[in-house]
Amino acid sequence: MIIGCRDESAGLRACEEIAVETGNTDVHCRLLDLASLASVRRFAQQFLRRKLPYSWLFLPVFLFFSLVYFLYL
Length: 73
Fold this sequence. Notes:
Blueprint: E1 2-5, H1 8-22, E2 28-31, H2 37-49, E3 57-58, H3 61-71
Helix pairs in contact: 2-3
């Protein structure tokens, strides 16, 4: 699971909590500032480089479709 977050320390705490509660240790935090188009593009590029299925993203639905839109600009 990859979680997009604006605050790295809060994101890491969330990842740790998810790992403890679910037993899934494959939870990752990536910086994502929705106020910055450069940040959104960087997040999308990093995700695409890993060649993971979209199901690995934990994002609100509107954000998911926004990322998909920016990927194809």
